[in-house]
Each structure stands twice: as structure tokens, then as C-alpha cells.
Specification:
By secondary structure, the protein is of the alpha+beta class. It has a single domain, classed as Creatine Amidinohydrolase (Alpha-Beta Complex). 18% of the residues lie in helices and 27% in strands. It is built from two helices and 14 strands. The strands form five sheets. The protein has a four-stranded mixed beta sheet with strand order 2-3-6-14, with no helix packed on it. It starts with 7 loop residues before the first strand and ends with a strand. 38% of the residues are buried.
């Protein structure tokens, strides 16, 4: 980040594997991350005074369970559908419902315990909110928001996929350049 001009991180990075990855705001630990599990990596930086935010979930081997692969595919499907709903005039509550409904219909509604997203600017968490508790104000062209559905299986694993996007009149402009394909490392 610093080589590309960032002045520092916009928040403490989260790197959480296995059951620890089921905690959306996991704290760092000094433990080895097991092979054949999922690892949630959430990070951002400050560039020219503005914050960024990106989350991806990686696999530490190709021996993932069918449930892990299924939940990853579900979260990706919910994230893509939600991105398609982000546009000027839509409410944060309506956009959140797109992901929430897909995740609930797949039987993981209890595992999505946070809002879909938030505004990002000079602070890492700003208005507008994309959540069920969001006000009814419509999104406006030029606002920067995150779109970050997640499913967290207590004692098992977590999956979150997050992009930073610019609200437009049509489809959002995605600022995140990291692939959303499930990447195997290790």
C-alpha cells in the first residue's frame, strides 16, 4: 500500500481463518491457520486523505468441504446481485434486501448478522448505510459505498466478499481491482 502512495491503513486489517473467520470483526491472534480452510482478509488504506475498504476470502488448500464451497458461491451470488441493485435513487434498505433475501432463502439468514455496506470517504464508516436499519434516503450519484455480504458459520468458518463502488445512475463503478474468484493459496 505504501509503495503505491498510501499514508497508512484505514483500519486495522483483519486476517481470520477457520472458526475465527466466523467473527466478522475478528481480532488478530498468534495461531497457525490450518490447511484446507477459508481465510477472510479485510483491509484498506488511506490515499490522499480518503479511505478504502476491501474484503476477500481465500482458501488455504483445495480440500475445502462442500459446505465451504457452497457458502462461498452463495456469498458471491449475493454480492453480484447486490451490486446490480446499487444505483442512484435506490434505498440502502432495498439494496441490503437483495443480498439478505438470497442468503435467507438458501438457509443461512442467521449467518448474515451485519449490514450489507456503508459509505466510505474521509472516515472508514460514513453514511449512507446499506442495511435493514438504514433510513429511507435514496442513494445519490457520486457516493462511495461498500457492498459486503457475508455468511458466518459459528465454530466453522466465514465468507465475506467486499467491493468499494461509486454510485451512478445505472450500474455502480467498481473501484476494487481484486478478483472475486475463489483463490487457493498455500
Amino acid at each position: 500500500m505504501r509503495r503505491r502512495g498510501a499514508s497508512g491503513p484505514s483500519f486495522p486489517s483483519i486476517i481470520a481463518g477457520g472458526a475465527h473467520g466466523a467473527l466478522p470483526h475478528a481480532e488478530p491472534r498468534d495461531v497457525v491457520i490450518d490447511r484446507d480452510t477459508l481465510v477472510v482478509v479485510d483491509m484498506g488504506c488511506i490515499l490522499d486523505g480518503y479511505c478504502s475498504d476491501c474484503t476477500r476470502t481465500f482458501a488455504t488448500g483445495d480440500g475445502l468441504s462442500d459446505e465451504m464451497r457452497s457458502v462461498y458461491d452463495l456469498v458471491l451470488k449475493a454480492q453480484l446481485a447486490s451490486l446490480d441493485a446499487v444505483r442512484a435513487g435506490a434505498s440502502g434498505k432495498a439494496v441490503d434486501s437483495v443480498a439478505r433475501d438470497l442468503i435467507r432463502e438458501a438457509g443461512h439468514g442467521d449467518g448474515f448478522g451485519h449490514g450489507l455496506g456503508h459509505g466510505v470517504g474521509l472516515e472508514i464508516h460514513e453514511d449512507p448505510r446499506l442495511s435493514q436499519s438504514a433510513d429511507d434516503k435514496p442513494l445519490k450519484t457520486g457516493q462511495i459505498v461498500t457492498v459486503e455480504p457475508g455468511v458466518y458459520v459459528p465454530g466453522g468458518f466465514g465468507v465475506r466478499i467486499e467491493d468499494l463502488v461509486v454510485v451512478t445512475d445505472d450500474r455502480p463503478e467498481i473501484l476494487t481491482g481484486v478478483s472475486k474468484d475463489l483463490t487457493f493459496v498455500g
